[in-house]
Amino acid sequence: MSKETLNFQAEVSRLLDIVANSLYSNKEVFLRELISNASDACDKLRYAAITQPDLAAEDPDYRVNIVVEKDNRTVLVEDNGIGMNRDDLVENLGTIARSGTLKFMQQMEQARDAQGQVNLIGQFGVGFYAAFVVADKVEVETRRAGEEQGWRWTSDGRGEFTIEDCADAPARGTRVRLHLKEGEDEFLEDLRLRRIVQTYSDHIAIPIYLGQGEEAEQLNTASALWTRPKSEITDQQYKEFYHHVAHAMDDPWLRLHFKAEGKVEYTCLLYVPSQKPYDLFHPDRKHGVKLYVRRVFITDDCEELVPAYMRFLRGVVDSEDLPLNISRELLQHNPLVTKIRQTLTNRVLNELKKKAEKEPEDYAKFWDSFGAVLKEGLYEDPEQRDTLLELARFRSSERDDVVSLKDYVASMKEGQESIYVITGENEDALRKSPQLEGFRAKGIEVLLLSDPIDDFWVPAVGEYEGKAIKSVTRGAAELDKVKTDDQSEEKAEDKGDETAIGTLVAFLKTALEDDVKDVRSTQRLTDSACCLVADDGDMDIHLSRLLRQHGQSVGDAKRILEINPKHPLITRLAECAKGGLNGAQGDLKDAAFLLLDQARIIEGETPQDPAAFARRLSQLVAKGLAA
């Protein structure tokens, strides 16, 4: 076919700009990333050759070669792995196949500091595109194992790439040729390249050579890192293996390296990242734990290996017992995989418990990054629920730092029988919610839950250590049971005119009977005039709104309107209602609907009839100004 010119996906073009400007001080990572990709390609072919041995029969010794061409100022990184065809080139080198990538790119660009550096670069594996940090032109010559057609991909990283037939492509595998930029001649020196490989890629389990033929020099030990004794592995080697297996730029927050022996034998080397991957909540994400069988790569997308609420894990599991040719279907129902999953889950949770106990401040940083994911287990995994509840940390209305449920219960007020929570869009909005006013006045701590999963795990869990977990936006406030430090009796005048309030409540029930389930006076409010709450048996207000936003039908459950008997507006309306209305029934009815619309606005809703709301508000303001 003739040469074909294509455009990079928009996100790729933006990533190239970010990479070029963010990795300048750490340019040597380009070689680490290319070697890592070459190693993955060899792993994939080794697995494919189990069932199709002809794919690797002519060249069974997997390797990576680095070749320097000083006269041309080029560096080659070549492997004899699985290779690529035309579609692979477009998919792997022209796009980033992850939903939400555009949003992530925007976040990265907004995160540039005063020097133009991007602080979030560690959240994104730059991979192949790191080549453009040192090269102004990159050529990829490749041939997929088992196919006759070879291909050449070429780009200067400025928005376009070309694809054409290539008779000179390797017999199998991929050759990446970097045309170095001016000023990058250091990467033409053997000593520099040797040092980079030994620093970043010594753990790669296939040999890496400098040069070709009999004079080629092997630069790495070429043994799987996870198979070595822990005493022989340095912290730097552990860290570089994390960079390889996670395709990440940050450093690991936690690592676990252990070997299980007995009925089921396997080795694990697992990491918890220090930074949240950008695609953590995207539906097309891949799990980050690779499955090997006796050092042979099987898959990097084994959902059965770790629970979904631990998808932040990165690393390797190497089994001695699974068959080499195990299929994805067999993985889903294999008892050995189930056993490995159970053990991994227990080990990781136990390590997290140790960190939470010994290094609470450091653990709080982990929770900020991955707590929203881990809380999914409270809903999905009843067997681990007690452990996860111990690990959970929460923001609250009474503290600046996070609090555990154990510490919350220990500090509950005398007479307090429940753990109180409130769910919403974000922490700042929750802190301003009128539903917190009465609790704050009595010093009662309320947990602020702003992750979508919170609306689901709270009703699923129900209680902790015999204490019911209750939403402050549902049911009666029950504040009269809680004793405070100031036990003095409320002054009679602070209670308001109970008869007048009762008359107003009755009027509001009649006026709003088609729009609310009930109207009642409450202790929940101290500063606001009114609020909406759900009845005990009804769906929480925030959950109902969340489901509607996702197109779910949740019915039309009416809410309860609660009024603050001490608020000046309510006391004035109560006086009007008690006085027999005196011709003000129309004004009171308008005020009733204004109260309801006000409560809806506070909850983030819109008035049912915005035009009527504006009309009523204008009329009452005009009358007030004329008085």
UniProtKB/TrEMBL annotation:
Location of the protein in the cell: Cytoplasm
Hydrolase in keyword set: no
Gene Ontology MF terms in the entry: ATP binding; ATP hydrolysis activity; ATP-dependent protein folding chaperone; unfolded protein binding
UniProt-annotated stretches for the region C: 546-627
Gene Ontology CC entries for this record: cytoplasm
Positions annotated to bind ATP: 33, 37, 79, 84, 92, 99-100, 123-128, 174, 328
InterPro entries: HATPase_C_sf, HATPase_dom, Heat_shock_protein_90_CS, HSP90_C, Hsp90_fam, Hsp90_N, Ribosomal_Su5_D2-typ_SF
PROSITE patterns attached to this UniProt entry: HSP90
Residue ranges of the region described as A: 1-328
Residues of the Histidine kinase/HSP90-like ATPase domain: 26-184
Keywords: ATP-binding, Chaperone, Cytoplasm, Nucleotide-binding, Stress response
Pfam hit, one: HSP90
Domain of life per record: Bacteria
Function as written in the Swiss-Prot or TrEMBL entry: Molecular chaperone. Has ATPase activity.
Entry's family note: Belongs to the heat shock protein 90 family.
Listed NCBIfam families: PRK05218.1 (NF003555)
Subunit text: Homodimer.
Name of this protein: Chaperone protein HtpG
Taxonomic placement: Bacteria, Pseudomonadati, Pseudomonadota, Alphaproteobacteria, Rhodospirillales
